[in-house]
Amino acid sequence: MRLTTKKITLMAMLTALLVTMQYVLAPFPNIKPLTAILMLLVLFLGRTEAVVVSILTILLNGLLNGFGIWILGQIIGYVVILYLFSWLSRLSQSTLIQSIFVTLLPFLYGLINTIFMLGLFGHQTFIALWLAGLPFDGVHALSTLCFFILLKPIFQKLPFFQGNSIQ
After folding, report:
1. What does the UniProt keyword field contain (predicted)?
2. How far, in Å, CA of 55 to CA of 108, rounded?
């Protein structure tokens, strides 16, 4: 990752946009463009840059909303799914195939977050926590898919992503 002033500025603005969107869409649980935008950043800006934006977004949200063990789960969850998406999207550049990955990876993110909640609730409650979270993971997956499909053509046309795409 070669950091230029342009790239640092873009990453900072994307972080601010993502944090703001979290607040604007707060009334709608798990219906957020965050995961879709981060996956699009993997495609059009780079995996490392997407991971940095995800970590900054999570930490800034933590500063505004409070920290807890879930922050570590969120960071690790996003790092894992962004690295997996980067690898999987190199196997197929088809939007249809990438949409399948985009739909499945939020379930892995939810599982990773549930694992980190074991520190709060204990291992005896793991299955109950995971099963109770599946509907939220499903909404997260569906909203990620919708935002991915809606935003990918826009990202393809944005001038500051030209020449950075892995496609």
Report:
1. Membrane, Transmembrane, Transmembrane helix
2. 17
Radius of gyration of the chain (CA): 16
Residue found by looking up tokens 């900054």 in the block: 56
User: How far is C-alpha 165 from the chain's CA centre?
Assistant: 18
Nearest by Cα to 130 from 116, 110, 109, 144: 110
Query: Which of 52, 43, 39, 56 is CA-nearest to residue 3?
Result: 52
Q: What is the pLDDT along the chain (167 residues), one digit of tens a residue?
A: 688 898 899 999 999 999 999 889 988 888 889 999 999 999 999 999 999 999 999 999 999 988 888 899 999 999 999 999 999 999 988 999 999 999 999 999 999 999 988 877 777 888 888 999 999 999 999 999 999 999 999 999 988 776 555 44
- Work out the burial of residue 45: count CB atoms within 10 Å of its CB; fewer than 13 is exposed, 13-18 middle, 19 or more buried: buried
Q: Domains plus CATH for the chain?
A: 5-161 (1.10.1760.20)
Token pair for residue 38?
A: 């981060």
**CA–CA separation, 47 and 79 (whole Å):** 9
Q: Which helix (H) or strand (E) holds 103?
A: helix 95-121
Number of Cβ within a 10 Å radius of residue 127: 10
Counting every residue written for the chain, the total comes to 167
